[in-house]
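Following up on my earlier message about 2-acetamido-2-deoxy-beta-D-glucopyranose. Here are the inputs again, as you asked, copied directly from the submission form:
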Amino acid sequence: MWPHGLNTSALLLVFLIGNTAANFCITNGPLGMITGSIHDWQITASSTYPQDWDKGCSEKYARVYLPNKLGWCAKYKSSSEWLQVDLGVAARVTGAMTQGRGDGVEWVTSFMISYSMDAFHWQYVTDHYGNQRVFEGNTDSYAIRHVYLDKPIIARYIKFHTVHWHRHPSMRVEILGCQLCKEPVGLPPYGKISASSSRKFKKKSSCQPDDGNIFSTKGWCPKKQDTNQWMQIDVGPPTLITGVISKGRGDTKRKHWVERFKISYSNDTQVWYFYKDAHHLDPKLFGGNNDKNSVRTHFLNSPFVSRYIRFHPIEWKGRISMRVGLLGCPFTGVCTDGFMRVNDDTPCVENLAYKKESWINSKRHYKRHIRNHLTEGHASRAVDGVMDLNLQGCTFLDNLYGDNPVWTVDLGDTTDVSGVIIYTWQGEGQEKGGKSFREYMKNLDKLVVYIDEDLREEDESYASGNMCNYVSSLNNALFHQKLILQCIRRHKGRYVLIEAWGVPNSWSRLFSAVLCEVQVFK
Ligand SMILES: *[C@@H]1O[C@H](CO)[C@@H](O)[C@H](O)[C@H]1NC(C)=O
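Thanks, got it. Here's what our run produced:
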Protein backbone atom coordinates (compact mmCIF):
# COMPACT_ATOMS: atom_id res chain seq x y z
CA MET A 1 0.00 0.00 0.00
CA TRP A 2 2.80 2.41 0.85
CA PRO A 3 5.49 3.15 -1.70
CA HIS A 4 8.97 1.84 -1.09
CA GLY A 5 11.36 4.26 0.46
CA LEU A 6 8.88 5.76 2.86
CA ASN A 7 11.03 6.50 5.89
CA THR A 8 10.47 4.70 9.15
CA SER A 9 9.27 7.69 11.09
CA ALA A 10 6.64 8.32 8.43
CA LEU A 11 5.66 4.67 8.70
CA LEU A 12 5.45 4.93 12.45
CA LEU A 13 3.29 7.97 12.00
CA VAL A 14 1.02 6.21 9.54
CA PHE A 15 0.69 3.45 12.06
CA LEU A 16 0.08 5.66 15.08
CA ILE A 17 -2.20 8.19 13.53
CA GLY A 18 -3.70 5.79 11.02
CA ASN A 19 -4.63 3.43 13.80
CA THR A 20 -6.05 6.07 16.07
CA ALA A 21 -7.83 7.71 13.17
CA ALA A 22 -9.27 4.45 11.92
CA ASN A 23 -10.36 3.35 15.37
CA PHE A 24 -11.55 6.51 16.99
CA CYS A 25 -12.24 9.03 14.25
CA ILE A 26 -15.97 9.41 14.04
CA THR A 27 -16.41 12.99 12.98
CA ASN A 28 -16.40 13.85 9.32
CA GLY A 29 -16.18 17.53 8.77
CA PRO A 30 -14.24 20.39 7.24
CA LEU A 31 -10.58 20.15 8.21
CA GLY A 32 -9.77 23.83 8.43
CA MET A 33 -9.85 25.74 5.12
CA ILE A 34 -13.16 27.33 6.10
CA THR A 35 -12.41 27.87 9.77
CA GLY A 36 -8.87 29.08 9.20
CA SER A 37 -7.35 26.40 11.42
CA ILE A 38 -5.35 25.64 8.30
CA HIS A 39 -3.07 28.69 8.20
CA ASP A 40 -2.22 30.59 5.02
CA TRP A 41 1.34 29.23 5.11
CA GLN A 42 -0.03 25.71 4.85
CA ILE A 43 -1.48 26.39 1.41
CA THR A 44 0.90 26.34 -1.55
CA ALA A 45 0.64 25.89 -5.30
CA SER A 46 2.63 25.01 -8.41
CA SER A 47 2.15 28.61 -9.54
CA THR A 48 -0.15 31.51 -8.83
CA TYR A 49 -1.35 34.32 -11.00
CA PRO A 50 0.63 37.37 -9.80
CA GLN A 51 -1.30 39.61 -7.43
CA ASP A 52 -0.05 42.67 -9.32
CA TRP A 53 -2.10 41.48 -12.26
CA ASP A 54 -5.11 40.37 -10.28
CA LYS A 55 -5.49 41.14 -6.59
CA GLY A 56 -8.08 38.42 -6.14
CA CYS A 57 -5.67 35.59 -6.89
CA SER A 58 -3.72 34.00 -4.07
CA GLU A 59 -3.16 30.57 -2.51
CA LYS A 60 -4.49 31.93 0.74
CA TYR A 61 -7.80 32.66 -0.97
CA ALA A 62 -8.25 29.02 -1.94
CA ARG A 63 -10.97 28.58 0.71
CA VAL A 64 -14.62 27.79 -0.05
CA TYR A 65 -17.09 30.43 1.17
CA LEU A 66 -14.62 33.28 0.86
CA PRO A 67 -16.21 36.29 -0.88
CA ASN A 68 -16.67 35.88 -4.61
CA LYS A 69 -13.82 36.82 -6.95
CA LEU A 70 -11.25 35.63 -4.41
CA GLY A 71 -9.61 32.29 -5.10
CA TRP A 72 -6.48 30.52 -6.11
CA CYS A 73 -5.74 31.00 -9.82
CA ALA A 74 -2.93 29.10 -11.46
CA LYS A 75 -0.49 31.30 -13.31
CA TYR A 76 -0.72 29.15 -16.42
CA LYS A 77 -3.63 27.50 -18.14
CA SER A 78 -2.07 24.09 -17.79
CA SER A 79 -3.16 20.68 -16.60
CA SER A 80 0.04 20.28 -14.61
CA GLU A 81 -0.93 22.94 -12.11
CA TRP A 82 -1.79 22.02 -8.55
CA LEU A 83 -2.91 23.44 -5.24
CA GLN A 84 -1.46 21.84 -2.11
CA VAL A 85 -2.83 21.84 1.42
CA ASP A 86 -0.70 20.79 4.37
CA LEU A 87 -3.12 19.56 7.02
CA GLY A 88 -0.31 19.84 9.56
CA VAL A 89 -1.07 16.48 11.07
CA ALA A 90 -2.15 13.34 9.25
CA ALA A 91 -5.91 13.05 8.89
CA ARG A 92 -8.41 10.51 7.68
CA VAL A 93 -9.73 12.13 4.52
CA THR A 94 -13.09 11.13 3.06
CA GLY A 95 -13.84 13.83 0.51
CA ALA A 96 -13.53 17.43 -0.57
CA MET A 97 -15.55 20.50 -1.45
CA THR A 98 -14.70 22.61 -4.46
CA GLN A 99 -15.96 25.94 -5.74
CA GLY A 100 -15.12 28.22 -8.65
CA ARG A 101 -13.75 31.70 -8.21
CA GLY A 102 -17.15 33.33 -8.04
CA ASP A 103 -16.51 35.83 -10.83
CA GLY A 104 -18.89 34.19 -13.26
CA VAL A 105 -16.16 32.93 -15.57
CA GLU A 106 -13.49 30.82 -13.88
CA TRP A 107 -13.84 27.32 -12.43
CA VAL A 108 -12.29 23.89 -12.60
CA THR A 109 -14.44 21.28 -14.34
CA SER A 110 -12.34 18.23 -13.50
CA PHE A 111 -9.42 17.51 -11.22
CA MET A 112 -7.36 14.76 -9.68
CA ILE A 113 -6.23 14.36 -6.07
CA SER A 114 -2.89 13.11 -4.83
CA TYR A 115 -1.80 12.71 -1.23
CA SER A 116 1.26 12.18 0.91
CA MET A 117 2.47 11.80 4.49
CA ASP A 118 5.78 13.60 4.00
CA ALA A 119 5.34 15.84 0.92
CA PHE A 120 7.93 13.63 -0.75
CA HIS A 121 6.25 10.35 -1.59
CA TRP A 122 2.96 10.92 -3.39
CA GLN A 123 0.11 8.72 -4.53
CA TYR A 124 -2.91 9.51 -6.63
CA VAL A 125 -6.41 8.72 -5.48
CA THR A 126 -7.46 5.93 -7.82
CA ASP A 127 -10.73 4.61 -9.22
CA HIS A 128 -12.09 1.05 -9.20
CA TYR A 129 -9.68 0.05 -11.92
CA GLY A 130 -6.62 1.37 -10.16
CA ASN A 131 -6.33 4.34 -12.51
CA GLN A 132 -5.81 7.89 -11.35
CA ARG A 133 -9.29 9.03 -10.62
CA VAL A 134 -10.56 12.13 -12.38
CA PHE A 135 -13.16 13.89 -10.24
CA GLU A 136 -16.01 15.84 -11.76
CA GLY A 137 -15.51 19.42 -10.70
CA ASN A 138 -17.75 22.42 -10.82
CA THR A 139 -20.26 23.42 -13.44
CA ASP A 140 -20.37 27.09 -12.65
CA SER A 141 -18.35 29.71 -10.87
CA TYR A 142 -20.37 29.83 -7.64
CA ALA A 143 -21.87 26.54 -6.46
CA ILE A 144 -20.03 24.29 -4.04
CA ARG A 145 -19.58 20.71 -5.11
CA HIS A 146 -18.97 17.86 -2.67
CA VAL A 147 -16.95 14.86 -3.89
CA TYR A 148 -16.49 11.61 -1.98
CA LEU A 149 -13.48 9.32 -2.08
CA ASP A 150 -14.33 5.63 -2.60
CA LYS A 151 -12.48 4.82 0.58
CA PRO A 152 -10.85 7.06 3.17
CA ILE A 153 -7.15 7.83 2.93
CA ILE A 154 -4.69 8.74 5.68
CA ALA A 155 -2.62 11.72 4.63
CA ARG A 156 -1.07 14.96 5.79
CA TYR A 157 -0.67 16.64 2.38
CA ILE A 158 -3.40 16.85 -0.26
CA LYS A 159 -2.92 18.13 -3.80
CA PHE A 160 -5.65 19.19 -6.21
CA HIS A 161 -4.46 18.83 -9.82
CA THR A 162 -6.36 20.87 -12.36
CA VAL A 163 -7.30 18.76 -15.40
CA HIS A 164 -9.95 20.80 -17.22
CA TRP A 165 -11.36 24.22 -16.52
CA HIS A 166 -13.63 26.91 -17.77
CA ARG A 167 -11.68 29.98 -18.94
CA HIS A 168 -8.98 29.69 -16.23
CA PRO A 169 -7.93 27.06 -13.64
CA SER A 170 -9.15 28.88 -10.52
CA MET A 171 -10.68 27.28 -7.47
CA ARG A 172 -11.54 27.30 -3.80
CA VAL A 173 -11.48 24.09 -1.76
CA GLU A 174 -12.11 22.41 1.58
CA ILE A 175 -11.00 18.95 2.67
CA LEU A 176 -13.35 16.71 4.61
CA GLY A 177 -12.55 14.05 7.12
CA CYS A 178 -11.38 13.52 10.65
CA GLN A 179 -8.21 14.64 12.35
CA LEU A 180 -7.38 13.54 15.85
CA CYS A 181 -3.90 14.58 16.72
CA LYS A 182 -3.96 18.32 16.22
CA GLU A 183 -5.39 19.24 19.60
CA PRO A 184 -3.65 21.10 22.42
CA VAL A 185 -2.15 18.64 24.91
CA GLY A 186 -0.40 19.15 28.24
CA LEU A 187 -2.49 22.16 29.23
CA PRO A 188 -2.88 23.33 32.82
CA PRO A 189 -4.07 22.15 35.25
CA TYR A 190 -3.20 18.65 34.06
CA GLY A 191 -0.05 19.41 32.16
CA LYS A 192 2.70 20.37 34.56
CA ILE A 193 5.08 23.13 33.64
CA SER A 194 8.49 23.54 35.20
CA ALA A 195 11.69 25.30 34.19
CA SER A 196 15.44 25.41 34.63
CA SER A 197 14.97 28.58 36.64
CA SER A 198 12.58 31.47 36.83
CA ARG A 199 12.70 35.03 38.02
CA LYS A 200 11.68 35.65 41.59
CA PHE A 201 8.03 35.36 42.38
CA LYS A 202 6.30 38.60 43.16
CA LYS A 203 2.60 39.11 43.48
CA LYS A 204 1.07 40.28 40.20
CA SER A 205 4.35 39.82 38.44
CA SER A 206 4.94 37.19 35.87
CA CYS A 207 7.83 34.96 34.77
CA GLN A 208 6.85 31.81 36.68
CA PRO A 209 6.86 28.52 34.77
CA ASP A 210 3.04 28.43 34.79
CA ASP A 211 2.98 31.88 33.17
CA GLY A 212 4.64 30.24 30.20
CA ASN A 213 1.60 28.28 29.05
CA ILE A 214 0.37 29.31 25.64
CA PHE A 215 -2.97 30.67 26.94
CA SER A 216 -1.41 32.83 29.61
CA THR A 217 -1.17 36.59 29.04
CA LYS A 218 2.30 36.72 30.63
CA GLY A 219 5.36 34.58 29.98
CA TRP A 220 8.04 32.46 31.59
CA CYS A 221 11.43 34.13 32.11
CA PRO A 222 14.52 32.38 33.44
CA LYS A 223 16.97 34.05 35.80
CA LYS A 224 19.89 33.78 33.45
CA GLN A 225 20.21 34.69 29.81
CA ASP A 226 22.05 31.75 28.31
CA THR A 227 21.36 28.72 26.17
CA ASN A 228 21.20 26.35 29.16
CA GLN A 229 17.71 27.47 30.08
CA TRP A 230 14.63 25.37 29.40
CA MET A 231 10.96 25.15 30.05
CA GLN A 232 9.36 21.75 30.47
CA ILE A 233 5.86 20.38 30.00
CA ASP A 234 4.92 17.08 31.62
CA VAL A 235 1.96 15.83 29.57
CA GLY A 236 1.28 12.78 31.76
CA PRO A 237 1.31 9.31 30.17
CA PRO A 238 3.50 9.26 27.04
CA THR A 239 1.56 11.08 24.35
CA LEU A 240 1.98 11.49 20.60
CA ILE A 241 3.26 15.02 19.97
CA THR A 242 2.66 16.42 16.49
CA GLY A 243 3.28 20.12 16.84
CA VAL A 244 4.77 22.91 18.94
CA ILE A 245 3.48 26.45 19.44
CA SER A 246 5.23 29.52 20.79
CA LYS A 247 4.55 33.15 21.64
CA GLY A 248 6.59 35.95 23.18
CA ARG A 249 6.05 37.52 26.58
CA GLY A 250 2.73 39.33 26.67
CA ASP A 251 2.87 41.46 29.79
CA THR A 252 5.80 43.79 29.42
CA LYS A 253 6.31 46.97 27.47
CA ARG A 254 9.74 45.74 26.49
CA LYS A 255 10.36 43.39 23.63
CA HIS A 256 11.02 39.95 25.06
CA TRP A 257 10.68 36.87 22.90
CA VAL A 258 12.55 33.82 21.72
CA GLU A 259 13.62 33.79 18.08
CA ARG A 260 15.02 30.28 17.90
CA PHE A 261 14.65 27.24 20.08
CA LYS A 262 15.24 23.52 20.19
CA ILE A 263 13.03 20.79 21.54
CA SER A 264 14.04 17.76 23.56
CA TYR A 265 11.94 14.98 25.03
CA SER A 266 12.14 12.19 27.57
CA ASN A 267 10.03 9.64 29.42
CA ASP A 268 11.93 9.82 32.68
CA THR A 269 13.81 13.19 32.75
CA GLN A 270 17.07 11.18 32.75
CA VAL A 271 17.59 10.29 29.12
CA TRP A 272 16.79 13.12 26.71
CA TYR A 273 16.57 13.17 22.93
CA PHE A 274 16.78 16.33 20.88
CA TYR A 275 14.12 16.55 18.24
CA LYS A 276 15.44 16.07 14.68
CA ASP A 277 13.51 16.10 11.46
CA ALA A 278 13.57 12.86 9.48
CA HIS A 279 16.89 12.39 7.66
CA HIS A 280 18.57 15.16 9.66
CA LEU A 281 21.56 14.63 11.90
CA ASP A 282 21.37 17.85 13.88
CA PRO A 283 18.68 18.92 16.30
CA LYS A 284 16.12 21.05 14.55
CA LEU A 285 16.34 24.77 15.19
CA PHE A 286 12.76 25.97 15.30
CA GLY A 287 11.96 29.48 14.20
CA GLY A 288 10.34 31.28 17.12
CA ASN A 289 8.69 34.66 17.39
CA ASN A 290 9.32 38.20 16.33
CA ASP A 291 6.73 39.97 18.37
CA LYS A 292 4.91 39.66 21.69
CA ASN A 293 1.63 38.06 20.81
CA SER A 294 1.63 36.31 17.45
CA VAL A 295 1.35 32.56 17.60
CA ARG A 296 3.95 30.54 15.74
CA THR A 297 3.03 26.93 14.99
CA HIS A 298 5.31 24.16 13.75
CA PHE A 299 3.99 20.78 12.77
CA LEU A 300 6.57 18.05 13.25
CA ASN A 301 7.51 15.92 10.32
CA SER A 302 8.72 13.29 12.76
CA PRO A 303 6.12 13.18 15.54
CA PHE A 304 7.23 11.38 18.70
CA VAL A 305 5.73 9.77 21.76
CA SER A 306 6.92 11.13 25.07
CA ARG A 307 6.00 12.29 28.55
CA TYR A 308 8.30 15.29 29.14
CA ILE A 309 8.96 17.91 26.46
CA ARG A 310 11.46 20.73 26.87
CA PHE A 311 11.82 24.01 24.99
CA HIS A 312 15.41 25.30 24.88
CA PRO A 313 15.73 28.97 23.86
CA ILE A 314 18.77 29.44 21.61
CA GLU A 315 18.36 33.01 20.36
CA TRP A 316 16.18 35.75 21.74
CA LYS A 317 15.25 39.39 21.59
CA GLY A 318 15.87 41.41 24.75
CA ARG A 319 15.55 38.80 27.43
CA ILE A 320 14.53 35.18 27.23
CA SER A 321 10.79 34.90 27.68
CA MET A 322 8.22 32.74 26.03
CA ARG A 323 4.88 31.00 26.16
CA VAL A 324 4.63 27.53 24.69
CA GLY A 325 2.14 24.82 23.84
CA LEU A 326 2.00 21.37 22.31
CA LEU A 327 -0.29 19.73 19.80
CA GLY A 328 -0.95 16.03 19.65
CA CYS A 329 -3.38 13.25 20.45
CA PRO A 330 -5.06 13.65 23.81
CA PHE A 331 -4.40 10.45 25.73
CA THR A 332 -7.60 8.40 25.86
CA GLY A 333 -6.56 4.88 26.85
CA VAL A 334 -6.34 3.19 30.21
CA CYS A 335 -3.91 5.12 32.40
CA THR A 336 -0.53 3.43 32.44
CA ASP A 337 1.24 2.35 35.64
CA GLY A 338 1.71 5.18 38.06
CA PHE A 339 -1.13 7.28 36.62
CA MET A 340 -4.71 7.67 37.70
CA ARG A 341 -7.95 9.44 36.84
CA VAL A 342 -9.65 11.44 39.57
CA ASN A 343 -12.94 10.80 37.84
CA ASP A 344 -13.73 8.88 34.68
CA ASP A 345 -13.71 11.92 32.42
CA THR A 346 -10.51 13.61 33.54
CA PRO A 347 -7.08 12.98 32.02
CA CYS A 348 -4.54 10.62 33.53
CA VAL A 349 -2.47 12.40 36.14
CA GLU A 350 0.46 11.11 38.11
CA ASN A 351 -0.33 9.05 41.20
CA LEU A 352 2.25 10.48 43.58
CA ALA A 353 1.90 7.56 45.98
CA TYR A 354 2.50 4.82 43.44
CA LYS A 355 4.99 2.27 44.81
CA LYS A 356 6.35 4.73 47.34
CA GLU A 357 7.47 3.59 50.77
CA SER A 358 4.61 3.17 53.20
CA TRP A 359 4.07 1.89 56.75
CA ILE A 360 1.54 1.56 59.51
CA ASN A 361 1.92 3.45 62.76
CA SER A 362 5.64 3.95 63.15
CA LYS A 363 8.18 3.28 60.50
CA ARG A 364 9.98 0.90 62.86
CA HIS A 365 7.02 -1.41 63.46
CA TYR A 366 6.39 -1.69 59.84
CA LYS A 367 3.90 -4.51 59.51
CA ARG A 368 1.68 -4.09 62.53
CA HIS A 369 -1.92 -4.95 61.94
CA ILE A 370 -4.77 -6.76 63.56
CA ARG A 371 -3.44 -10.26 62.94
CA ASN A 372 0.28 -10.34 62.98
CA HIS A 373 0.52 -13.84 61.59
CA LEU A 374 -1.28 -12.94 58.37
CA THR A 375 0.67 -12.05 55.30
CA GLU A 376 -2.19 -9.82 54.24
CA GLY A 377 -2.60 -6.28 55.31
CA HIS A 378 0.88 -5.07 54.54
CA ALA A 379 1.09 -1.29 54.27
CA SER A 380 2.39 -1.39 50.72
CA ARG A 381 -0.74 -3.12 49.39
CA ALA A 382 -2.38 0.29 49.28
CA VAL A 383 0.17 1.72 46.87
CA ASP A 384 0.95 -1.27 44.65
CA GLY A 385 -1.09 0.16 41.77
CA VAL A 386 -3.17 -3.02 41.62
CA MET A 387 -6.89 -2.30 41.75
CA ASP A 388 -7.54 -5.50 43.66
CA LEU A 389 -10.40 -4.92 46.08
CA ASN A 390 -10.08 -8.37 47.65
CA LEU A 391 -9.15 -8.37 51.29
CA GLN A 392 -5.86 -10.02 50.38
CA GLY A 393 -4.90 -7.04 48.22
CA CYS A 394 -5.63 -4.43 50.89
CA THR A 395 -3.97 -2.78 53.87
CA PHE A 396 -5.53 -3.08 57.35
CA LEU A 397 -5.52 -0.37 59.93
CA ASP A 398 -6.67 -1.26 63.42
CA ASN A 399 -6.42 0.06 66.96
CA LEU A 400 -4.65 -2.90 68.53
CA TYR A 401 -1.51 -0.88 69.11
CA GLY A 402 -2.85 2.60 69.60
CA ASP A 403 -6.07 4.53 69.69
CA ASN A 404 -5.62 6.15 66.32
CA PRO A 405 -3.75 3.96 63.89
CA VAL A 406 -2.06 5.80 61.06
CA TRP A 407 -1.01 4.68 57.61
CA THR A 408 1.74 6.78 56.06
CA VAL A 409 3.23 7.06 52.60
CA ASP A 410 6.46 8.91 51.88
CA LEU A 411 6.12 10.71 48.52
CA GLY A 412 9.91 11.02 48.36
CA ASP A 413 9.95 14.79 47.92
CA THR A 414 8.05 17.74 49.20
CA THR A 415 5.39 18.44 46.62
CA ASP A 416 2.01 20.07 46.13
CA VAL A 417 -0.88 17.80 46.99
CA SER A 418 -4.46 18.58 45.98
CA GLY A 419 -6.13 15.45 47.20
CA VAL A 420 -6.27 11.77 47.93
CA ILE A 421 -8.42 8.92 46.64
CA ILE A 422 -9.07 5.95 48.87
CA TYR A 423 -10.50 2.73 47.47
CA THR A 424 -12.15 0.88 50.34
CA TRP A 425 -12.95 -2.72 50.85
CA GLN A 426 -16.41 -3.88 49.83
CA GLY A 427 -16.47 -7.27 51.52
CA GLU A 428 -14.71 -9.37 48.89
CA GLY A 429 -12.38 -12.19 49.88
CA GLN A 430 -13.25 -12.46 53.57
CA GLU A 431 -12.21 -15.87 54.89
CA LYS A 432 -14.75 -17.95 56.78
CA GLY A 433 -14.92 -18.09 60.57
CA GLY A 434 -13.58 -15.64 63.08
CA LYS A 435 -14.90 -12.20 63.61
CA SER A 436 -15.29 -10.56 60.29
CA PHE A 437 -13.57 -7.37 59.31
CA ARG A 438 -16.99 -6.07 58.47
CA GLU A 439 -17.93 -6.20 62.12
CA TYR A 440 -14.85 -4.27 63.10
CA MET A 441 -15.47 -1.75 60.37
CA LYS A 442 -18.82 -0.89 61.95
CA ASN A 443 -16.84 0.64 64.76
CA LEU A 444 -14.90 2.86 62.41
CA ASP A 445 -16.01 6.46 62.62
CA LYS A 446 -13.77 8.49 60.36
CA LEU A 447 -10.66 8.61 58.26
CA VAL A 448 -8.64 11.80 58.41
CA VAL A 449 -6.01 12.68 55.82
CA TYR A 450 -3.00 14.85 56.69
CA ILE A 451 -0.23 16.17 54.51
CA ASP A 452 2.97 16.82 56.42
CA GLU A 453 6.47 18.06 55.83
CA ASP A 454 8.04 16.04 58.63
CA LEU A 455 7.29 12.86 60.49
CA ARG A 456 5.90 13.20 63.99
CA GLU A 457 7.20 11.41 67.00
CA GLU A 458 5.50 8.13 67.72
CA ASP A 459 2.21 8.41 69.61
CA GLU A 460 2.01 12.10 68.99
CA SER A 461 -1.50 12.91 67.86
CA TYR A 462 -2.03 14.25 64.41
CA ALA A 463 -5.29 15.87 65.35
CA SER A 464 -3.80 19.33 65.25
CA GLY A 465 -1.68 18.60 62.20
CA ASN A 466 -1.90 19.67 58.67
CA MET A 467 -5.31 18.28 57.80
CA CYS A 468 -6.24 17.86 54.15
CA ASN A 469 -9.76 16.58 54.68
CA TYR A 470 -11.70 13.76 56.29
CA VAL A 471 -14.65 11.49 55.67
CA SER A 472 -16.90 10.12 58.41
CA SER A 473 -19.38 7.30 58.79
CA LEU A 474 -22.28 9.75 58.66
CA ASN A 475 -24.79 8.44 56.10
CA ASN A 476 -22.39 5.59 55.42
CA ALA A 477 -20.13 7.96 53.46
CA LEU A 478 -17.10 6.11 54.76
CA PHE A 479 -18.13 2.88 53.13
CA HIS A 480 -18.34 3.95 49.51
CA GLN A 481 -15.91 2.11 47.27
CA LYS A 482 -14.16 5.25 46.05
CA LEU A 483 -13.59 8.16 48.40
CA ILE A 484 -12.30 11.30 46.75
CA LEU A 485 -10.88 13.69 49.32
CA GLN A 486 -9.88 17.02 47.88
CA CYS A 487 -7.81 19.00 50.31
CA ILE A 488 -9.63 22.00 51.68
CA ARG A 489 -6.67 24.04 50.58
CA ARG A 490 -3.64 23.08 48.56
CA HIS A 491 -0.94 21.52 50.68
CA LYS A 492 2.76 21.12 50.33
CA GLY A 493 4.26 18.10 51.95
CA ARG A 494 6.24 14.94 51.70
CA TYR A 495 4.16 12.57 53.82
CA VAL A 496 0.50 11.66 53.39
CA LEU A 497 -1.06 10.17 56.50
CA ILE A 498 -4.42 8.51 56.92
CA GLU A 499 -5.59 8.26 60.47
CA ALA A 500 -8.51 6.07 61.57
CA TRP A 501 -10.88 6.97 64.39
CA GLY A 502 -13.30 4.63 66.18
CA VAL A 503 -16.92 5.35 67.02
CA PRO A 504 -16.95 7.11 70.39
CA ASN A 505 -18.46 5.15 73.26
CA SER A 506 -18.72 1.99 71.27
CA TRP A 507 -19.21 -1.18 73.31
CA SER A 508 -16.25 -2.70 71.57
CA ARG A 509 -13.06 -0.76 71.31
CA LEU A 510 -11.81 -2.72 68.38
CA PHE A 511 -12.18 -1.21 64.92
CA SER A 512 -10.48 -1.55 61.60
CA ALA A 513 -10.21 0.31 58.36
CA VAL A 514 -9.36 -1.49 55.15
CA LEU A 515 -7.51 0.55 52.53
CA CYS A 516 -7.34 -1.30 49.24
CA GLU A 517 -5.69 1.44 47.20
CA VAL A 518 -4.61 4.96 48.03
CA GLN A 519 -3.80 7.45 45.29
CA VAL A 520 -2.41 10.93 45.78
CA PHE A 521 -2.74 13.67 43.17
CA LYS A 522 -1.31 17.09 42.64
C1 LIG B 1 8.14 6.62 25.95
O1 LIG B 1 7.37 5.48 26.26
C2 LIG B 1 6.53 5.04 25.21
C3 LIG B 1 5.77 3.82 25.67
O2 LIG B 1 5.16 4.00 26.86
C4 LIG B 1 7.31 4.73 23.96
O3 LIG B 1 6.44 4.38 22.91
C5 LIG B 1 8.14 5.94 23.56
O4 LIG B 1 8.93 5.64 22.47
C6 LIG B 1 9.00 6.40 24.73
N1 LIG B 1 9.66 7.64 24.36
C7 LIG B 1 10.93 7.90 24.68
C8 LIG B 1 11.43 9.24 24.31
O5 LIG B 1 11.65 7.11 25.25
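One observation from looking it over: Helices lie at 8-24, 437-442. Hope that helps, and feel free to reply on this thread.
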